[in-house]
Amino acid sequence: MAEAEYDFDLFVIGAGSGGVRAARIAAQAGARVAIAEEYRVGGTCVIRGCVPKKFMVYASDYGRKIEEARQYGWQVEEKGFDFPAFMSAMNAEVDRLSAIYLRNLANAGVDVFEERAELKDAHTIVLKESGKTFTVDKVLIATGGTPWRPSPEELPGVEHTMTSNEVFLLDELPKRIVIAGGGYIACEFAHIFAGLGVETCLVYRGDTVLNGFDWDVRTAVHEGLKEAGVRVITSAIFEEIREVEGEECPYCIKLSNGMEINADKIVMAVGRRAATDGLGCDAAGVKLTDKGAVIVDDSSRTSVPNIFAVGDVTDRIQLTPVAIREGHAFADSIFGDKDWHFEHDNVASAVFTQPEVGTVGMTEAEARKALDNVDIYKTKFRPMKTMLLDDPERVMIKLVVDGDTDRVVGVHIVSPDAGEMIQMIGIAVKMGATKAQFDATCAVHPTIAEEIVTLRQKWVPETEPA
Ligand code: NDP
């Protein structure tokens, strides 16, 4: 533990997923811990990310479910969607979760400061509103990330746009929304708004969304967006946004391909940046990447020995469960009796498009680069439920196998409940399971997931993906 000369053994900046976990574990191990949060306890995941987003996904999916129910014989009278009622229920749940986070911190004996904290030097923290100053032995930077937008010089009219942060504050549904980007957030929101009946357009600078994912996932999601009614414009970026008078949609977006599209809401989902602006990293000597992310080693230690960082602010893998593990490992190692660090390989994740993406391990392209022999097993089919529906939805399941060791090194799924499936498959892949072991697992019938253990035929490529 720290020498008594310090006010706290640990000061955590940022009460999101990673910071809260670290603070609680360190306090439970006997450290004197404080945490500061400038917005709301819970961070991106609870307040303006994973949690409210997933509720919006559920809400938007009911429109389709109502239609499906009709085709399954239910006589359903649809009276429309009450967006304000939904938002108020969703916000109540977010408030409840934030309060639980606060209570858990208090129960663990953590001092909570609901204001912005900055580093004055490596051992001094300043609270910006109250002006209080504390000396601290260790610091954990867990400030997360923040949506990035081009400057007004780069994109005239950018002030008319919003980011994912503001989507959660909408008080009514737009008529026509245009979303820039082709990553996680752009694709998820495109499905959400289309599902809620909003005329939705996605503008992506590349040719197929979800760059970095397996090619078959990308093409399935790209086609899925169009099937869901999203207008997808590729190879284009916003050039200018101007206000138009007397129109139902008050903004006109000029694209780099010469097209002009109108919208009443515009979302920039073009990536996130580490939240290190004005944090005092310079003053404390903490080194950052050229994009402002905190540079850390495997133990989440920064260039300053008593300062650590976890979560999105380090730009390793921007996922809540990763931040939680990094925070837990830090607290156990520094304040507890277990020295460990989180391994960043084979992290399973989901994209909550409709249908969802579930993915773990290497893409086919990554495997072909890294391994001498790669076997691919894949299938595309209509799930059983859709046989009674007028629904073109197809499922895609793909296994990437090391041809020399028979080890399954990647699994990629586009399917209803793919997020749930990939959580389970992640265990097998993390354990190093072979294709023979997948095959030895008996199928659960009739399910979509049974295809994962019944794929017998190696896929032979006709043309290499670009
Ligand atoms: P992503 O990095 O996933 O996507 C950013 C998108 O913006 C890409 O399509 C990128 O194009 C495009 N882009 C970047 N710069 C520009 C530019 N200057 N002009 C036009 N387009 C541009 O970021 P997101 O904001 O969607 O998500 C951030 C992170 O948050 C994700 O990486 C993920 O880790 C996490 N997240 C996870 C979720 C989940 O687990 N379900 C949900 C939401 C977020 P290009 O492809 O060409 O680079």
From TrEMBL:
<dbReference type="InterPro" id="IPR023753">
    <property type="entry name" value="FAD/NAD-binding_dom"/>
</dbReference>
<dbReference type="InterPro" id="IPR046952">
    <property type="entry name" value="GSHR/TRXR-like"/>
</dbReference>
<keyword id="KW-0274">FAD</keyword>
<dbReference type="GO" id="GO:0004362">
    <property type="term" value="F:glutathione-disulfide reductase (NADPH) activity"/>
</dbReference>
<dbReference type="GO" id="GO:0050660">
    <property type="term" value="F:flavin adenine dinucleotide binding"/>
</dbReference>
<keyword id="KW-0547">Nucleotide-binding</keyword>
<dbReference type="InterPro" id="IPR004099">
    <property type="entry name" value="Pyr_nucl-diS_OxRdtase_dimer"/>
</dbReference>
<dbReference type="Pfam" id="PF07992">
    <property type="entry name" value="Pyr_redox_2"/>
</dbReference>
<feature type="domain" description="Pyridine nucleotide-disulphide oxidoreductase dimerisation">
    <location>
        <begin position="347"/>
        <end position="455"/>
    </location>
</feature>
<keyword id="KW-1015">Disulfide bond</keyword>
<comment type="similarity">
    <text>Belongs to the class-I pyridine nucleotide-disulfide oxidoreductase family.</text>
</comment>
<feature type="disulfide bond" description="Redox-active">
    <location>
        <begin position="45"/>
        <end position="50"/>
    </location>
</feature>
<dbReference type="GO" id="GO:0034599">
    <property type="term" value="P:cellular response to oxidative stress"/>
</dbReference>
<feature type="domain" description="FAD/NAD(P)-binding">
    <location>
        <begin position="8"/>
        <end position="327"/>
    </location>
</feature>
<keyword id="KW-0676">Redox-active center</keyword>
<dbReference type="InterPro" id="IPR036188">
    <property type="entry name" value="FAD/NAD-bd_sf"/>
</dbReference>
<feature type="active site" description="Proton acceptor">
    <location>
        <position position="445"/>
    </location>
</feature>
<dbReference type="GO" id="GO:0045454">
    <property type="term" value="P:cell redox homeostasis"/>
</dbReference>
<dbReference type="Pfam" id="PF02852">
    <property type="entry name" value="Pyr_redox_dim"/>
</dbReference>
<dbReference type="GO" id="GO:0050661">
    <property type="term" value="F:NADP binding"/>
</dbReference>
<dbReference type="InterPro" id="IPR001100">
    <property type="entry name" value="Pyr_nuc-diS_OxRdtase"/>
</dbReference>
<protein>
    <recommendedName>
        <fullName>Glutathione reductase</fullName>
        <ecNumber>1.8.1.7</ecNumber>
    </recommendedName>
</protein>
<dbReference type="GO" id="GO:0006749">
    <property type="term" value="P:glutathione metabolic process"/>
</dbReference>
<keyword id="KW-0521">NADP</keyword>
<dbReference type="InterPro" id="IPR016156">
    <property type="entry name" value="FAD/NAD-linked_Rdtase_dimer_sf"/>
</dbReference>
<feature type="binding site">
    <location>
        <position position="271"/>
    </location>
    <ligand>
        <name>NAD(+)</name>
    </ligand>
</feature>
<keyword id="KW-0560">Oxidoreductase</keyword>
<comment type="subunit">
    <text>Homodimer.</text>
</comment>
<comment type="function">
    <text>Catalyzes the reduction of glutathione disulfide (GSSG) to reduced glutathione (GSH).</text>
</comment>
<keyword id="KW-0520">NAD</keyword>
<keyword id="KW-0285">Flavoprotein</keyword>
<feature type="binding site">
    <location>
        <begin position="181"/>
        <end position="188"/>
    </location>
    <ligand>
        <name>NAD(+)</name>
    </ligand>
</feature>
<feature type="binding site">
    <location>
        <position position="312"/>
    </location>
    <ligand>
        <name>FAD</name>
    </ligand>
</feature>
<dbReference type="InterPro" id="IPR006324">
    <property type="entry name" value="GSHR"/>
</dbReference>
<dbReference type="InterPro" id="IPR012999">
    <property type="entry name" value="Pyr_OxRdtase_I_AS"/>
</dbReference>
<dbReference type="GO" id="GO:0005829">
    <property type="term" value="C:cytosol"/>
</dbReference>
<feature type="binding site">
    <location>
        <position position="54"/>
    </location>
    <ligand>
        <name>FAD</name>
    </ligand>
</feature>
